[in-house]
Amino acid sequence: MIQLIRGFKDILPEEIAVWQHIEKTARSLFADFGFKEIRLPILEHSELFKRSIGEDTDIVEKEMYTFSDGKRGMITLRPEATASVVRSYIQHKMYAKDPVQKLYTIGPMFRRERPQKGRYRQFYQIDAEVFGVNSPFIDAQIIFMLVTFFNRLSITDLETHINSLGCPECRPRFQKRLLGLITSVKSELCIDCEKRSTKNPLRVLDCKVPTCKKAMEDAPSILDFLCKDCDNHFEKVKALLDKRQVSFVVDKQLVRGLDYYTRTAFEIQTSLLGAQNAVAGGGRYDGLVKTLGGPAQPAIGFAIGFDRLVEIAGINKEDFISKPDIFIAALGEKCIDTAFEWVCTLNIKGVKCEMDFSGKSLKSLMKKADKLNAKHVLIVGEDELETRTVTLRNMSTKKQVSIETDSLVESIQEVLK
Ligand SMILES: [Zn+2]
Ligand SMILES: [Zn+2]
User: How many CB atoms are closer than 10 A to CB 229?
Assistant: First the structure.
């Protein structure tokens, strides 16, 4: 038997209701905030991710699924969505129509991570990006939107972490100081950190290896190095969040792993998955549109880990499993013929109605109705057809009503009201 690839998973029908509910919640909320959906290919030129995410990141170095596309060069299964959204914003010159664009996309991402519990090589993200807005109001607004989204899914055990990563003017001063510390504790750092520290010392702050975390405990805070503009921006974001009563923690360790972030960075963390874990993260990336060949337009966005969300959302699966309103138990060929007409008519009238075509006994049909969790069963035998009256049985109250077949559809709609 051929099994699925290790690190991948099927989302089965009994789980899908939760996925759909989360998606519906996101679509509805994001639309209220003025976001429009964009759907993008899962394959892009490898160069796109190398240039956006950064060559010396874990993602680009060892986690991308990259293939040769013959003469057309190397292509990659997208490891995240931001780069593709930016590529599309530039390619379709969306900025010419209006530099301000609010976009969201939902779909699978791919990373060749070591398979482990709760980590998949194809995982899903809900991703939102805003282009063309410099103002700290948008930073606060999308954090507010994100927190509202989690609230709507009844996820309460949350902590919003925020930090500022400065800008090309002020960050180098911090990096220089950080590099001083890194050099002094170099022997305690992991191989990756040792390798990366000179190119991007910020990454060392982001490393999850305990010895690195410990070594960087006394690292200076980037907030002490912000230039006036970055400082004002961050202060305003914090004030706006306070005003909206979004509680947050200023977290100097929060640097996000990717090259393109500037100024506001944020993460939503929860302990619902065991150790403190991020379920969403994002930030400002004011330089990326230009880096990828577009005009100098600021941008900010976030990604939510959909798979983790499914695990922690306060959703009772049972509430979302679709149950038939009516199951028609038709006994014998003639009854099946008639019932088939009824099922089709009820289905197009919006009634969830199913039947079985096998001609089994009433006993086994009732068993099937039970299994499907049908709310009502309509029993149709030859005698019932003769008298033009069928019996509708409410499966929870066990009450039965007689229905005339001449006005069957109307009567059923009446009962279901
Ligand atoms: Zn700055
Ligand atoms: Zn490390």
Answer: 14
